[in-house]
Design goal:
Elements (H helix, E strand, L loop, with lengths): L1 E2 L6 E2 L6 H24 L5 H22 L1
Antiparallel strand pairs: 1-2
């Protein structure tokens, strides 16, 4: 018998609960994904450039709509 390092409950085996290990792995992956996403978007450095990109997307969408009419 051992205490699980993650949930601090008694474990019948001498290891952490499999569910707890998987849950912790998923939580760490989510945190890693969030940090990578913010780096890819680079929002913390170039907030003014975001407006230009949005304008370009809107112009592109309006061109497509007027051409189809």
């Amino acid at each position: 018998m051992k205490i699980c390092n993650i949930c601090h409950k008694i474990s019948a085996t001498d290891q952490d609960h499999i569910d707890c290990v998987q849950k912790r792995r998923i939580e760490l992956e989510d945190e890693d994904t969030k940090s990578k996403l913010q780096e890819k978007l680079n929002l913390s450095n170039d907030t003014q450039d975001l407006g230009i990109e949005v304008k370009a997307i809107l112009e592109h969408l309006t061109k497509e709509k007027s051409e189809s009419d």
